[in-house]
Design goal:
Blueprint (H helix, E strand, L loop, with lengths): L5 H15 L21 H13 L2 E11 L3 E12 L3 E13 L5 E13 L2 E6 L4 E4 L8 H12 L14 E8 L2 E9 L2 H7 L3 E10 L5 E10 L2 E10 L11 H29 L10 E5 L1 H15 L2 H13 L9 H13 L1 E4 L4 E5 L4 H20 L2 H5 L6 H26 L11 H6 L10 H20 L6 H5 L5 H5 L1 H10 L22 E6 L3 H9 L4 H7 L8 E5 L7
Helix pairs in contact: 5-9, 6-8, 9-11, 11-13, 17-18
Length: 569
């Protein structure tokens, strides 16, 4: 084998080791109340986030400071959150700076802002009216993104936190309230996305009985500037609805009209790019829906799409591989990932696309276009059946998911780039484009889900770079056989060129260890594929090394046996 270095042998032996190690695990449900009895605080944080997401209203009081010896920026505000995604912000924004000559200047402004159904409105003293826009000018897009990141820190962005940094700090009394404190760190990769360098550490104090936050303190450095934010949470579910000014209400109606007008254009665009008949979606409509409804439907669709028993065993395997946190509920991770990556769903029975009403207009438009692609896919493929077959392995499920979602992302990127006179079909990579466009405001970085979409998109990019968009239909007649072909498209394309038909599962060995495990019953058997093994190595090595380490993958299988006590091996 060419250029096969000795250290690569060690990596491939490690891959082999993963396939033969026997492991024991017990499936337990932590309560999230008595933290000292848990292996970690991860599940408690999950319960805190779940409790916070169930509230209808809360008043948040926050102060933020960003400063250096020459520069200081202060934001002190009250934020009234209603119906989870609508809020009214009032506060003082102050700024001061000392230039090299020693002269200083400062400014201070009273800020009033509404954020309703994904649209920001700011009060302009110059015009004495509410206008669409934010605190910063539209021209300063870099500062706007950074401001959005800092502003969102007063909420619990679980996806932005390093899950291995959670630490229980002890119990305490906050007045008459029994409470406990948990510390954590913002994921360094998230910091890099919004700032060139820095770190942020947090401590959150939580009501022991309700699991609702009482206060939060964040501190750190961002690009050499000291950062401090103090947040207090009050009046859970006690806030009165705030009245929306008339000129804001008019703008909200315009958003609905805009999507009614553009929806037909999105269908026409997708049909033109993909060579599909637009009349196939003539009965499909679009509607905005709140966060709670969309999350519920995605969770229900998950149960239709996948075998829940399979999910349970997959989760235990991924915990063993250290791909997901030990205390995580794998089913909830899948559901939350789909919710955060999509914020929408297509109901094939009702023939209706539902879009999150909290999304900003530009993002909502891209999300809607991806759902149009899925609506076409439903017309052409039985999406439920291809994921839930009795002998469909994890590797095959992941491969098909990557292809289906990759196509929707690819069409969305083509749409975004076409507006700029460019084309996705001519690009050489996908990750940077996804980061800067369809996922530019996302915090989600659980590799098990996020990177699968990225690899799927890049597979589609490689395919259409060589052929035409319409040729993608042939992929669904002859699915890629494994994630190996998604991660390394050249393997599939070579077979495509010579007209070789993929034989799904032809190499899937079904071992039987019954004679070795008396009184144990085989309850799960699957093939993981190259993707999870790559993620395992990526926990300890950089991406290039990890991909090389698994590049020789050919096949694997893993079985779970269970005894009468419900213990798994």
């Amino acid at each position: 084998m060419k250029n096969y270095r000795p250290n690569m042998v060690k990596f491939h032996l490690a891959c082999l080791f993963l396939c033969v190690v026997i492991f024991f695990c017990k499936i337990e449900k932590a309560t999230g109340i008595n933290i000292e009895e848990q292996e970690s605080v991860y599940s408690t944080v999950e319960d805190i986030v779940d409790s916070f997401n169930k509230i209808d209203s809360v008043d948040i009081f926050a102060e933020s400071w960003i400063q250096s010896p020459e520069y200081r920026e202060t934001l002190k505000f009250k934020n009234l959150i209603r119906e989870k995604d609508n809020y009214k912000l009032e506060g003082q924004l102050s700024f001061s700076k000392i230039n090299p000559s020693g002269r200083s200047f400062s400014s201070s402004n009273w800020v009033q802002q509404y954020y309703i159904r994904g649209i920001s409105f700011i009060w302009r003293d110059t015009t004495k009216q509410w206008e669409k826009g934010g605190i910063l000018n539209d021209n300063d897009s870099g500062k706007k993104l950074k401001y959005r990141f800092l502003k969102n820190l007063f909420l619990i962005n679980f996806e932005a936190i390093d899950p291995e940094s959670f630490n229980f700090r002890g119990y305490s009394k906050k007045g008459d309230t029994d409470s406990f404190t948990i510390s954590y760190k913002i994921d360094s990769e998230i910091i890099k996305k919004w700032y060139s360098y820095g770190y942020i550490e947090g401590k959150i104090c939580v009501d022991k009985n309700t699991l609702l936050p009482i206060d939060l303190r964040l501190s750190g450095k961002l690009e050499g500037l000291d950062f401090l934010q103090i947040v207090q949470y009050k009046n859970y579910n006690k806030g009165e609805k705030f009245s929306i000014p008339e000129d804001i209400a008019k703008n909200l109606k315009l958003k609905e009209r805009y999507f009614e007008d553009i929806f037909e254009k999105l269908i026409e665009y997708v049909s033109r790019v993909r060579g599909w008949d637009a009349d196939a979606l003539s009965e499909v409509s679009v509607e905005f829906e709140n966060r709670k409804k969309i999350k519920e439907v995605i969770a229900k669709n998950l149960e239709k799409k996948y075998n829940l028993k399979k999910i349970q065993y997959e989760g235990e395997i991924f915990k063993w591989l250290n791909i997901i946190p030990k205390d995580a509920e794998y089913k909830d991770l899948i559901s939350n990932a789909e919710f955060l990556l999509k914020s929408s769903f297509y109901d094939a029975e009702k023939k209706k696309i539902f879009i999150g009403d909290w999304l900003e207009e530009e993002i909502a438009e891209n999300v809607c276009l991806r759902e149009v692609v899925r609506a076409f896919q439903h017309k052409r493929i039985d999406l439920n059946s291809i994921f839930n077959g009795e002998n469909v392995t994890y590797d095959q499920n992941t491969t098909r998911n990557a292809l289906i979602e990759g196509e929707s992302y690819a069409v969305a990127l083509e749409y975004i780039l076409n507006k700029k006179g460019d084309s996705f079909q001519t690009k050489r990579q996908s990750l940077d484009l996804i980061e800067k466009t369809v996922q530019k405001n996302s915090y989600l970085r659980i590799p098990l889900f996020y990177e699968m979409y990225v690899y799927g998109t890049d597979f589609v990019r490689n395919f259409i770079h060589r052929y035409e968009w319409t040729k993608l239909d042939e992929l669904y007649k002859n699915f890629p056989v494994s994630m190996k072909e998604i991660i390394h498209p050249e393997y599939y394309i070579v077979k495509y060129e010579i007209g070789k038909k993929n034989e799904i599962g032809r190499n899937f060995i079904q071992p039987d260890f019954s004679s070795s495990f008396t009184n144990w019953e085989k309850v799960y058997l699957t093939s993981l594929g190259e993707y999870p093994i790559y993620l395992f190595f990526n926990k300890y090595f950089n991406k290039n090394v990890s991909i090389k380490a698994v590049s020789g993958w050919s096949e694997d299988n893993i079985a779970v046996y269970q005894n009468k006590n419900g213990e798994n091996i």
